[in-house]
Amino acid sequence: MKIDLRCQLCGDEDESVNHVLFTCSMARQIWALTGIPSPSWGFHNGSVFNNIHYLLMNTTNTLWPHELRLSFPWTLWRIWKNRNLASFEGKCFSPLESAQKVKEDWTEWVEAQKGDEEIGLVNGPETHGLSPLGHGIGNRRYGWSPPPLNWFKCNIGISWSNRNKFAGCAWVLRDHLGKVLLHSRRAFVRLSDKQEAHFIGLMWAIESMRSHRVENVIFGLQVESLVKAINRPIAWPSFRYQSMEAGLVLKFFRRWKIILENSSSNRCAFLIAKSVTNDCRLQSYVTVGHPFWLDGVFAVERALASD
Ligand SMILES: [Zn+2]
């Protein structure tokens, strides 16, 4: 196919990746406006590697302001988007608009990350949420913490055996006093990887709560990506399938929350799950109360609940 090989933005020379991203007059202006210091001899004329290397090396350069050091991927992205806009739609943002957009994209990203730390983990979506204050349902406290009055907490433990490709899953349902109402254990075989095990385990626990007609439930698990993805699906597009599937079942609950636990706060559920993979206990069950072999651990957590 005969096409014009010149850069459609500056008409200057043959268009290459390096030209578009670094040496095109359009790119140069955008880089200049974002404030990133150019290399002393300017961006390398022929090597994308050299130029990216320069940016990566400076991510730890404390002489550059924090934002400049970390925001360069957004600049690259915006230059690339601009090039495509010009090629396919015949439109183009000015260098000034582009630099402005880089700032906006970057700020949006930083805000989204903050959101995960401050809201996503400790508190669920606003519509299902309750105040995180005073209930001790955050993940910062050491050891298990009980749900507020009228809520139930379902801790989910998942243990993965990479050698045998199977997972042990367990959930433990407790009230605000730390009393174990029910617990369940199940093995899942023929799974492809740990991620699948985490998701299957979570879905199984949610479905179980639904079939036991538990309302107002806080799901606690140790899988950060799933907790974040379900709380903020927009910020986690690659987990869209998981967050949508979970969302379909969660909408049957009157109120729900999903929070991140750590190994100390999720100990009971994890130990039950681990008994599946450690001792190959493949038999599933649901039963009232807690397993007798964990008497001591549960007693400690009940005591924590009455603190
Ligand atoms: Zn050009």
Overview of the structural elements:
This protein has 307 residues and is α/β, with parallel strands linked by helices. Helices cover 45% and strands 14% of the residues. The protein folds into two domains: 17-119, no CATH class; 125-305, Ribonuclease H-like superfamily/Ribonuclease H (Nucleotidyltransferase, domain 5), CATH 3.30.420.10. Residues 117-140 have low confidence and may be disordered. Bound molecules: zinc ion (ZN). Residues 7, 9-10, 12, 19, 24 line the site of zinc ion.
Write the layout of secondary structure elements.
Blueprint lengths: L16 H7 L1 H10 L13 H10 L8 H5 L1 H18 L5 H26 L31 E10 L4 E9 L5 E9 L5 H18 L5 E5 L2 H8 L8 H11 L5 E5 L6 H13 L5 E4 L6 H11 L2
Parallel strand pairs: 1-4, 4-5
Antiparallel strand pairs: 1-2, 2-3, 3-6
Bound molecules: zinc ion.
Zinc ion binds next to loops.
The shape is: elongated
State which percent range the strand residues make up.
5-15%
- Tally of helical runs: 11
Give the low-confidence spans: 117-140
Question: Quick check: average pLDDT?
Answer: 86
Give me the CATH superfamily of the largest domain.
Ribonuclease H-like superfamily/Ribonuclease H
CATH class of the largest domain: Alpha Beta
**What does the radius of gyration come to?**
26 Å
Number of domains: 2
- CATH architecture designation of the largest domain: 2-Layer Sandwich
According to CATH, the fold-level topology of the largest domain is: Nucleotidyltransferase, domain 5
Q: What is the helix fraction of residues, given as a range?
A: 40-55%
Quantity of strands, as a count: 6
Order of helices and strands: HHHHHHEEEHEHHEHEH
Distinct small-molecule ligands in the complex: zinc ion
- Quickly give the structural class: alpha/beta
